[in-house]
Amino acid sequence: MIELKSKREIQLMREAGEILKKVFAVVEPLGVEGFTTEALDAAAEKVIRENGGEPAFKGYRGFPKTSCISLNEAVVHGIPSARRLKKGDIVSFDIGVKWKGFYVDAARTWQVGANDPQKQALIDTAKQSLKTALAAYQPGWRIGDISEAIQRYVEERGFQVVRDYAGHGIGRQLHEDPQVTNYGKAGRGAKIEPGLAIAIEPMVTEGHYAVETLEDGWTVVTQDRKNASHYEDTVVFTENGFINLTSDEVP
Ligand code: MG
Question: What is the pLDDT of residue 250?
Answer without folding.
Answer: 74
